[in-house]
């Protein structure tokens, strides 16, 4: 694999600065919980279903319970102890029964002390551990299926998006895509799902420009892709989104239903969805702990920076975000092999030497994170509707991908920004990828940039700029840097944004067996 | 004296010249050859029968002669075609009518510059979903930096100050916030249309602003998939945006409306 000789001192400095920028935020994340983290814990404990009698649409039972516990005794102690105490007190068989009784106004939640507390905590731990063992079994099963059917024969793995709004149509499109060569299927979520503070229930058939992420939809897609994996003789991976206000719950559902990759960025929700920064960091830490446990590869969202800012001027912000994402991920227990750090081919094609600049940026990421399954994202900003030119640009994107040893290649569509891709658009896009892989798949072997050449110098320059920016962030504090609009031009104050009221500072006696089990790596 | 660039000959009468300008055909490599290229997919297996089917479709599309230059299977059930051919249709330029947008589409840079020049401060936009409508899809697509259809939302514009109040905002609350934030424009999104809720809610909002602020009310803009842009007067708002509206269109409209039409107020 081609890597650049980066200044080792500068690389070390970059990681040190990222750690120093991230550490106060990690401390903050450890000191707080959120409604979504608490809901995720109860989902692990086995709560499912929704209250279908509610007048303005279905409310998941888990929301009903967590909201009521919060009303009665606050969330600073965690939801586990009050919920399992009530379960024992009312002699109920399951959390779903507890939820029904809660909805009927029959339950008064309290925080017990002494032996009652010990009993409730133990019961909660037993139930949550059962959920985590299901996550563990899903991981073992994935390993087994990969051993049976195999990984894709080539790198990069080919990642393709489907988004019809109807899970049944998604299955048809995904199966066709896999037969045509896709290794990873991502189902885009319905527009704005990230801002829902609950996870919808059941199989869904009406989304806006995407399909709702639900536990049942996850199950349907995974089961369908298991069938297709058998047929095509390689394990087809399934991807969804652990982002937005329900990030921790999405991670849990993905773990339970054996999804393989999840979009999960440390700052995307803050910057691009105006979600409260503290909410995001707390939710992100828990979701990453779950992903670590579930063997899920996360995909980070650095490509988004380049859609708002200039891809040359802002190249270093991508590197900074990658370093921060890496730090947060390591702290949460993710291994390098689970870090699908993102970057994108978004330099204006009119710019002289644009392709060489792309190679420099892509090689920088490859050299800085040699063991991470980097995710290489296609051009979107400079796709104009001229589909012929777009097809050529995607060809160059694919070439840059193989030349710089990228790991996951999101297939570019020539109809980007024109229409949702036609069946034929996907087919042509895959033909483009196949041609480049076939013609030049091993070109990286012959490609070594001049040590003092254009590419090496540009990479070094971007890295220095990244270190400079990280130093400024360390001085200001990451939260203040975010508030000041350092990333993606957006100013996001720590007390602003959506979901802020769902953040709770933990009390001394806070108890969440899910966090304990994840941090201990325990199964019981 | 009119200059012509198409090699006018003295034997061509003015009327003939007029005709030549009025009717045109696609240009492949010779004037008047009518050559076009189309590609499409048919849901049938690849083979001679499929090519015949493509030929028939091309003929019905007005391609004569049509040449199926390429076909290949997509899976077992579909076939992709590339067809070249001469279209039998003429374009009558006199019959071309373009619906003019009442405002020019500007880039984010142009919008920022226009706001800066005209207002010398940020343009304040307050957005909300009013009534019981909890679907923030529309307002978020327009306001969130994430945006819609490849365009960044209004938050992305440096010279716009965006206050997104989110869902289920009551009309009195919206009026209060619009006044407190000195809103130049108020954007409301309505997705739910049961029993014409979107129309009733929007009228109520417009009336409330008229009553509370009279002529000094902010620019009122309503949007949603079931709105007809011609309904603005009926609803009492300044502009209505329908399905598929992009943030850039809204931003361009705001700048146009606030810097030209309502100069007296700003």
TrEMBL record, chain A:
- Which stretches make up the D-Lysine 5,6-aminomutase alpha subunit domain? 4-517
The protein depicted here goes by the name L-beta-lysine 5,6-aminomutase alpha subunit
Cited InterPro entries:
Cbl-dep_enz_cat, Lys-AminoMut_A, Lys-AminoMut_asu_sf
Q: Which organism is it from?
A: Longimycelium tulufanense
Q: Name one GO molecular function term.
A: cobalamin binding
Automatic annotation (TrEMBL), chain B:
Q: Name one GO molecular function term.
A: cobalamin binding
Can you give the residue ranges of the B12-binding domain? 122-265
Indicate, by first and last residue, each region the UniProt record lists as having compositional bias (Basic and acidic residues). 1-11
Supply the InterPro entries for this chain.
Cobalamin-bd (IPR006158), Cobalamin-bd_sf (IPR036724), KamE_N (IPR028991), KamE_N_sf (IPR036843)
Positions of the UniProt region annotated as Disordered: 1-28
| Full protein name | L-beta-lysine 5,6-aminomutase beta subunit
């Amino acid at each position: 694999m081609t890597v650049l000789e980066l200044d080792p001192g500068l690389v070390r400095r970059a990681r040190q600065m990222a750690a120093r920028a991230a550490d106060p935020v990690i401390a903050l994340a450890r000191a707080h919980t959120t409604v979504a983290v608490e809901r995720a814990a109860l989902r692990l404990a086995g709560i499912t279903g929704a209250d279908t009698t509610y007048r303005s649409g279905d409310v998941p039972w888990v929301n009903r319970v967590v909201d009521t516990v919060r009303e009665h005794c606050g969330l600073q102690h965690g939801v586990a102890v009050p919920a399992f105490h009530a379960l024992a007190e009312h002699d109920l068989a399951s959390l779903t029964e507890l939820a029904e009784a809660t909805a009927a106004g029959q339950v008064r939640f309290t925080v017990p002390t002494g032996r009652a507390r010990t009993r409730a905590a133990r019961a909660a731990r037993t139930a949550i551990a059962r959920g985590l063992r299901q996550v563990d079994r899903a991981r073992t099963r994935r390993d087994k299926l990969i051993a049976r059917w195999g990984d894709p024969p080539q790198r990069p793995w080919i990642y393709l998006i489907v988004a019809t709004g109807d899970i049944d149509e998604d299955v048809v499109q995904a199966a066709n895509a896999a037969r045509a060569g896709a290794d990873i299927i991502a189902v885009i979520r319905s527009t704005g799902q990230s801002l829902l503070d609950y996870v919808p229930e059941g199989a869904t058939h009406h989304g806006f420009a995407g399909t709702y992420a639900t536990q049942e939809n996850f199950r349907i897609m995974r089961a369908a892709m298991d069938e297709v994996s058998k047929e095509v003789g390689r394990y087809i991976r399934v991807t969804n989104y652990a982002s937005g206000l329900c990030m921790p719950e999405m991670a849990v559902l993905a773990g339970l239903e054996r999804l393989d990759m999840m979009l999960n960025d440390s700052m995307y929700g803050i910057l691009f969805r105006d979600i409260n920064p503290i909410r995001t960091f707390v939710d992100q830490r828990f979701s990453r702990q779950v992903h670590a446990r579930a063997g899920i590869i996360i995909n980070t969202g650095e490509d988004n920076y380049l859609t708002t800012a200039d891809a040359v001027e802002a190249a270093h912000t991508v590197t900074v975000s990658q370093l921060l994402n890496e730090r947060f991920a390591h702290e949460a227990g993710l291994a390098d092999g689970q870090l699908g750090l993102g970057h994108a081919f978004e330099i204006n094609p009119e710019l002289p030497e644009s392709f060489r600049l792309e190679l420099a940026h892509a090689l920088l990421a490859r050299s800085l994170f040699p063991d991470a399954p980097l995710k290489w994202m296609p051009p979107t900003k400079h796709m104009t509707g001229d589909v012929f030119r777009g097809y050529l640009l995607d060809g160059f994107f694919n070439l840059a991908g193989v030349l710089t040893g990228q790991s996951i290649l999101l297939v570019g569509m020539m109809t980007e920004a024109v229409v949702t891709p036609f069946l034929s658009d996907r087919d042509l896009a895959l033909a483009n990828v196949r041609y480049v892989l076939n013609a030049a798949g091993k070109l990286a072997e012959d490609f070594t940039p001049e040590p003092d050449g254009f590419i090496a110098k540009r990479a070094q320059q971007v890295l220095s700029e990244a270190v400079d920016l990280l130093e400024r962030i360390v001085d200001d504090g990451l939260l203040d840097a975010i508030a000041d609009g350092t990333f993606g031009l957006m100013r996001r104050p720590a007390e602003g944004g959506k979901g802020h009221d769902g953040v709770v500072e933990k009390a001394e006696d806070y108890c969440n067996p899910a966090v304990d089990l994840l941090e201990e790596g325990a199964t019981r | 004296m009119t200059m012509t660039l198409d090699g006018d000959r003295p034997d061509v009468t003015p009327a003939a010249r007029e005709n030549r300008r009025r009717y045109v055909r696609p240009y492949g490599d010779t004037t008047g050859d009518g050559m076009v290229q189309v590609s499409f997919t048919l849901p049938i297996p690849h083979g001679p029968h499929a090519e015949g089917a493509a030929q028939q479709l091309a003929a019905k599309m007005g391609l004569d002669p049509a040449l199926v230059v390429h076909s290949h299977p997509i899976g077992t059930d579909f076939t992709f075609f590339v067809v070249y051919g001469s279209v039998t249709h003429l374009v009558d330029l006199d019959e071309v009518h373009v619906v003019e947008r009442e405002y020019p589409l500007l880039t984010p840079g142009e919008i920022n510059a226009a706001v800066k020049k005209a207002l010398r401060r940020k343009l304040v936009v307050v957005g909300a979903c009013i009534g019981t409508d909890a679907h923030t899809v529309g307002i978020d697509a327009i306001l969130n930096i994430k945006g819609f259809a490849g365009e960044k939302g209004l938050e992305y514009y440096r010279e716009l100050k965006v206050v997104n109040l989110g869902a289920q905002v009551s009309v009195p609350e919206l009026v209060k916030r619009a006044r407190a934030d000195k809103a130049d424009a108020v954007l409301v999104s309505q997705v739910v249309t049961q029993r014409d809720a979107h129309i009733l809610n929007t009228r109520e909002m417009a009336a409330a602003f008229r009553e509370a602020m009279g002529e000094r009310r902010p620019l009122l803009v309503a949007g949603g998939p079931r709105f007809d842009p011609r309904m603005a007067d009926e609803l009492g708002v300044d502009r209505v945006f329908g399905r598929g509206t992009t943030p850039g269109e809204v931003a361009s409209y705001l700048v146009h409306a606030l810097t030209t039409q309502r100069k007296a107020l700003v």
